[in-house]
């Protein structure tokens, strides 16, 4: 049976986030012979973004343009997504497990009285059914889940399922859908971003995270330099945020962001369980701590026991030579 899956794209500053392409790859895995429909809501660059979705594997893309979709609101995006679902009747809806994905998908799934599998890190097919793997108990265990009836809604954790190779020879229809989204109660007038410019933490392949051991706001400067030479982003423990060394937007952990980079360098972080909840699934973990007994070494692939103020500059110097 030829099925249709809908992938809801997510953009930032007019460009699609990489997790959108990972969502398309997930949909392709579930629905190799069926149709993958992309959906982009917004008010600028929709054609370019739709084209990128096609290059990454979407068979067809629907764009919904409206000034009230410039910035995400659950009401505005909800109306657009519901209209597309009712028109297209997809068998599944996939989106990134981002702040937007976490907010939007449960609302729509509950409206449609169907299930949602959130924060999936892997997917396999068995007897034509999609089985999703997702972490539980703060990443200490994994469960496998499938939805047996209704539309399958799923959000996928960034950086876990590889996107398909971008291929400019791929073609697909791009259609725009006219919708009046003016009747909504919440309109975002302005977005003031606190986070620093540069690589997005939740999608970064390399993260250099600082803890209370960094000791001050200035102590974060060498960490930023290390992140820069590695093309990565800076993150932090809650200890560092509480001490006002950095902004809470950098916090990683149970009550912060959940990240899965290829390389996570924990600097002056003790490795409290709440911090591990946000980073323990990173592919390679390096810990720098002066306390050889620090808990972070229990999950680190590589550990450096030493003073971070000596080790980090040495690392920067050596990496610059490569
Ligand atoms: P510390 O535990 O103080 O560790 C600092 C480390 O730096 C030490 O290991 C020390 O040996 C090392 N160090 C000091 N100086 C140097 C030096 N010169 N060179 C090298 N190493 C040095 N925490 C999070 O991170 N994220 C969360 O999302 C989060 N959520 C929480 C939710 C709840 C409900 C609660 C109760 C707590 C939460 N916490 C969270 C807090 C968590 O329990 C820890 O308090 C916090 O992670 C500690 O931060 P830290 O490792 O930076 O600081």
Automatic annotation (TrEMBL):
User: What SMART domains does the record point to?
Assistant: ETF
Against InterPro entries, the record matches this protein to: DHS-like_NAD/FAD-binding_dom, ETF_a/b_N, ETF_a/FixB, ETF_alpha_N, ETF_asu_C, ETF_asu_C_CS, Rossmann-like_a/b/a_fold
Q: Does the keyword Flavoprotein apply?
A: yes
Q: Which residues bind FAD?
A: 212, 237-238, 251-255, 268-275, 289
| Signal peptide coordinates | none
Report the GO molecular function annotations: electron transfer activity; flavin adenine dinucleotide binding
All residue ranges annotated as the Electron transfer flavoprotein alpha/beta-subunit N-terminal domain in the record: 5-196
Gene3D superfamilies in the cross-refs: HUPs (3.40.50.620), TPP-binding domain (3.40.50.1220)
Q: Which UniProt keywords apply?
A: Electron transport, FAD, Flavoprotein, Transport
* Listed cofactors: FAD
Query: Which biological process terms from the Gene Ontology are attached to this UniProt entry?
Result: fatty acid beta-oxidation using acyl-CoA dehydrogenase
Give the cofactor note: Binds 1 FAD per dimer.
Task: Answer yes or no on keyword Iron.
Answer: no
Q: Please give the family membership noted in the entry.
A: Belongs to the ETF alpha-subunit/FixB family.
UniProt name for this protein: Electron transfer flavoprotein subunit alpha
Organism encoding this protein: Virgibacillus necropolis
At the highest ranks, the source species' classification is: Bacteria, Bacillati, Bacillota, Bacilli, Bacillales
């Amino acid at each position: 049976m030829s099925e249709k899956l809908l992938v809801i794209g997510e953009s930032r500053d007019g460009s699609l986030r990489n997790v959108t392409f990972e969502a398309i790859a997930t949909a392709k895995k579930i629905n190799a012979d069926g149709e993958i429909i992309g959906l982009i809501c917004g008010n600028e660059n929709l054609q370019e973004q739709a084209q990128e979705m096609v290059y990454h594997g979407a068979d067809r893309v629907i764009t919904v343009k409206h000034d009230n979709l410039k910035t995400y609101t659950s009401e505005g995006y909800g109306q657009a997504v519901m209209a597309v679902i009712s028109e297209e009747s997809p068998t599944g809806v996939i989106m990134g497990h981002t702040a937007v994905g976490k907010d939007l998908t449960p609302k729509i799934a509950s409206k449609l009285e169907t299930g949602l599998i959130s924060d999936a890190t892997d997917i396999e097919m068995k007897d034509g059914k999609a089985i999703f793997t997702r972490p539980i108990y703060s990443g200490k265990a994994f469960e496998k889940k499938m939805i047996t009836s209704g539309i399958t809604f799923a959000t996928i954790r960034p950086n876990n399922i590889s996107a398909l190779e971008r291929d400019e020879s791929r073609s697909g229809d791009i259609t725009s859908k006219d919708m009046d989204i003016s009747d909504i109660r919440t309109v975002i007038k302005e977005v003031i971003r606190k986070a620093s410019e540069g690589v997005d933490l939740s999608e970064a392949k390399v993260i250099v995270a600082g803890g209370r051991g960094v000791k001050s706001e200035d102590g974060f400067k060498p960490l930023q330099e290390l992140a820069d030479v590695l093309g990565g982003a800076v993150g932090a423990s809650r200890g560092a945020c509480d001490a006002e060394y950095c902004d809470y937007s950098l916090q990683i952990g149970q009550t912060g962001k959940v990240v899965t980079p290829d390389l996570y360098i924990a600097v002056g972080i003790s490795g409290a369980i709440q911090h591990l909840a946000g980073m323990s699934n990173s592919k390679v973990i390096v810990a720098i701590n002066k306390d050889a007994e620090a808990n972070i070494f229990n999950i680190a692939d590589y550990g450096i026991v030493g003073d971070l103020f000596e080790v980090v500059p040495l690392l920067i110097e050596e990496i610059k030579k490569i």
